[in-house]
Amino acid sequence: MIITTTPTIENHPVREYLGIVTGEVIVGANIFKDLFANIRDIVGGRAGAYERTLGQAREQAFAELEAQARERGADAIIGIDIDYEVVGQGGSMLMVSASGTAVKL
Hints:
Elements: E1 2-3, E2 16-27, H1 29-37, E3 42-43, E4 46-47, H2 48-71, E5 76-87, E6 93-104
Parallel strand pairs: 1-5
Antiparallel strand pairs: 2-6, 3-4, 5-6
C-alpha cells in the first residue's frame, strides 16, 4: 500500500475516495519514567530511548491507519498528517495520531 503526505500520487490518478482513516497510540507516563531512568542513553544531546519509544508508537499508529484502509479496500492513503499531543492529567501521557484519506487508485 502506498502511503504519503502528499494529496496526490504522480502517475496514479485517484479513482475513488474511501474516507478518512486514523491510527492513534497513547504511551503512558510509566514508560517515560522508565526511559528517564536510562538517561545514560543521551548521546550528543539526543535521547535514544525516547526516540525509539516515539518511533514505535508512530509505527503502531501507521499500522492502524493501514489496517483501516485495507478494510475499506484502499490501494493507498494520501494526505497523511502525523500529530504528537501531551494528554492526561498533568500531561502524564503522549498520544501519537496519524490520519489520512483512503483511496482506490
